[in-house]
Amino acid sequence: MQAWRVHTPGEPREAMRLEEVPEPVPGEGEVRLKVLAANVNFPDALLVRGQYQIRPPLPFTPGVEICGETEDGRRVIANPSLPHGGFAEYVTASARALLPAPETLDDAEAAALHIGYQTGWFGLHRRARLAAGETLLVHAAAGGVGSAAVQLGKAAGATVIGVVGGKAKARTAEELGCDLVIDRTSEDIVGQVKEFTGGRGADVVYDPVGGDAYAASAKCVAFEGRIVVVGFASGTIPAPALNHALVKNYAVLGLHWGLYATKDPAAIAACHAELTRLAAEGAIKPLVSERVPLAATADAVQRLADGTTTGRLVVVPALDGGGSR
Predict the structure, then answer these.
(1) Which Pfam family, any one of them, does this sequence belong to (predicted)?
(2) Can you tell me the distance from the alpha carbon of 75 to that of 104, in angstroms, rounded to the nearest whole number?
(3) Residue 46 pLDDT class (50, 70, 90 cuts)
(4) Structural domains of the chain in order of their starting residue, each with its CATH number
């Protein structure tokens, strides 16, 4: 089979190689899956660069999220077992962790439903306790992670402010249903949020960016607001001023979704059931901007790493030849 492999960490276009390799052999408690679609995530870029908290043995295949087909024909969502990641024709995954792919989503959409939407749901509902009528501020609202949070916020009855970088991304955020879109490249985030909320600020801030985005969040979060720290796509990890959180009465909440797999796996299944329901109702739908063939994977990972993408890039091996749902 064909699989992208990393022999030496580096930038995706240089470090990733498409090679012929044997199909992976399932270990105890695992199953082999045919990859129908593999979503490109920011952790994939970090894995390739050798900057992720998990460092699989070299050589390895990145790709942490797929929609696949079992040997008995079931369509499922899975997190492949590294070092045999999803940017390949076949993967192995834990049999116990397989989730049914929603019938209302195609392969590429189903592949993009899991990590981003589970992160959004746990961040907004379990950590921040977002309530209907509250104001939610989402950074990188036109990206894969941000767009999921926007949709989940709207589904929860929140007023959603989306922060983006550039006019094209602003249009995407508007189409997603943001009640206010702020272009950080030309507009003042803090001033716009304060004006829109009558000086109150945002009740919940969803931040997958860090750096300057977090600094702005602390300045425009509401009294008793909650800032959910999801990631650091900017490359800069902020150092929160706890005295500021004290005098302004807001909370800084960390979210590492992967911990729920060991701490509370039943919650992941329950969340997936809720996401499946929302997808069936049309309240959420992954924003798949491009479906790319397996041969173009390294370029897709590089573009995501460079921050030039909108929505989700999803690798569909069948586009190299063959059919997909």
Answers:
(1) ADH_N
(2) 12
(3) very high
(4) 2-113+286-320 (3.90.180.10), 119-259 (3.40.50.720)
